[in-house]
Amino acid sequence: MEPEGRDLFAIADLAREFGISTRAIRFYESKGLLAPERVGATRIFRRRDRARLILILRGKRLGFSLRDISDYLSLYDADRTQQVHLLAEKVDQRIALLERQRDDLETTIRELREIRKLADERLVKS
């Protein structure tokens, strides 16, 4: 059965599906980002937990901090307008940071190429 058609998931199911460790999932739980039900010592994840895990992993892949992800998830069941505003603000901040980093990288690459050119010229002269 497709994961989207299921209602319940074990921690190992989610770890396997998303290619992460069960330890990572427990870490997200310890940070309050996931809240599985418990049956004894067994964690039972629902579709909602799976959806939240997708958002957590996407946020991490895009470079957002756990705090940013937590802020966004705290609005998950609340005011959608506020959630969208927060998302737009965080995305704008992330884009600005990445653009600054890209500019810094381009400057560094230019400087390194110039250094390499000077080194090559000195090697030819010697």
From TrEMBL:
Source organism, top-level taxon: Bacteria
Occurrences of domain HTH merR-type (ranges): 8-75
GO molecular function ontology, one term from the record: DNA-binding transcription factor activity
Residue stretches spanning the membrane: none
Keyword Transcription included in the entry's annotation: yes
Segments forming a coiled coil: 88-122
PROSITE patterns: HTH_MERR_2
Keywords: Coiled coil, DNA-binding, Transcription, Transcription regulation
Gene3D superfamilies the record matches: 1.10.1660.10
InterPro entries per the UniProt record, alphabetical: DNA-bd_dom_put_sf, MerR-type_HTH_dom, MerR_fam, Tscrpt_reg_MerR_DNA-bd
Lineage: Bacteria, Pseudomonadati, Pseudomonadota, Alphaproteobacteria, Hyphomicrobiales
Protein name: MerR family transcriptional regulator
